[in-house]
Amino acid sequence: MVINTNTTAQKSAHNLMASQAQLSKSLARLSSGSKIVNPSDDAAGVAVGMRLDAQVKRLDAALNNVGNAVSFTQTQDGYLKKVGKALDRMSELSLLAQDVTKSDADRSLYNNEFTQLSAYISEASSKDFNGVSLFSSAALNVTSDSEGDTLSMTGVNLANAAYTTALAGNISTNAGAVTALTNVKAAIVQLSSDRASVGAYQSRLNYTSEQLTISKENLTAASSRIQDVDVAEEATNFAKQNILVQSGTAMLAQANQLPQSVLRLLQ
Questions:
Q1: Which residue range forms the structural domain that includes residue 251?
Q2: Residue 237 to residues 15, 40, 144, 228, 233: CA-CA distances in angstroms?
Q3: Which residues pair with 153 in a beta bridge?
Q4: What angle do CA 115, 120, 122 make, to 5 degrees?
Q5: Pair (113, 14) in one structural domain
Q6: Contact 166/183 with Cβ under 8 angstroms?
Q7: CATH assignment of the domain containing 183
Q8: Which pLDDT score, from 0 to 100, does residue 1 have?
Q9: Co-location of 55 and 93 in the same domain
Q10: pLDDT of 121-166, one tens digit each?
């Protein structure tokens, strides 16, 4: 029996320190909700989790971009609906002006409304969405995923010849009304094609938005499995380490008492 070196106490102290370290780590995990408190806990997990989190953020940005593009096309279609009604009325006026019982004075009255509707459509062609022209021939490239890939939306151009020719019509004479009707009908055909294109882009954007949402959910779940703590499991581990710390403290106290038994040999 020796008194200078108490190996039993050293082993008890070592075990106690290990238990305290695990208890501290368990507390940190429970308080932060994260399984990886320090990079050393899971070096590979930290790297993978960071990449997944960054991709989720990019998916959020792509979702915002797609959502704004949907709003853009909805605003476009809102104007095109009204333009369609205006063209319908202009075609009606063109046909009314061809009535043989009407004089040119009557046709001039029809032409006043025809001109105002033309002006309305011309004004609509200059509208924009957050500074971006709604009706331009330029294509718009919409971000469609987290890697920056894009889908191209062809512009709806109200300055198209089919529209401008129809808007330049004059139905104050019978001959003018005949020509105007032909031109307005051509503009309606062009408008129907443009609205169909806008609808097709809306459909694609909606599917893209749904796919981005699903991808975000799956990536978030993958990141959670790597980084988020299982509270039930960690609470059990916490209770275990807490008991080990308490028992280790008690055993260290007992180990420190062992050298005192040497005094009995000296009595």
A1: 7-33+230-266
A2: 16, 19, 44, 15, 6
A3: 140
A4: 95
A5: no
A6: yes
A7: 1.20.1330.10
A8: 56
A9: yes
A10: 999 999 999 999 999 989 999 998 889 899 999 999 999 999 999 9
Decide the pairing of beta strands 132-133 and 150-153.
unpaired
- Name residue, tokens 């971009």: 65
Indicate whether 181 belongs to any domain.
Answer: yes
Q: Mean pLDDT throughout 8-12?
A: 79
The answer to whether 131 touches 107, Cβ cutoff 8 Å, is no
The percent of residues in the chain predicted with pLDDT above 90, rounded, is 60
* Burial class of residue 244 (count of CB atoms within 10 Å of its CB; 0-12, 13-18, 19+): middle
Helix %, strand %, coil % of the chain (to 5): 75, 5, 20
Quote the pTM value. Answer: 0.79
Q: What is the average pLDDT across 22-27?
A: 82
> Same domain, yes or no, for 191 and 77?
yes
Question: Strand pairing partners for 142?
Answer: 151
What count of residues does the chain have? Answer: 267
Tell me what the pLDDT averaged over the chain comes to: 89
Which of these, 168, 166, 167, 173, lies nearest to 108 by C-alpha position?
173
Residue 3 has what pLDDT? 64
Q: Please give the pLDDT value at position 5.
A: 67
Q: Residues near 187 by Cβ (< 8 Å), separated by ≥ 6?
A: 87, 162, 163, 165, 166, 167
Res 94 pLDDT > 60: yes
H/E run at residue 188? helix 174-227
Domain count, the chain: 2
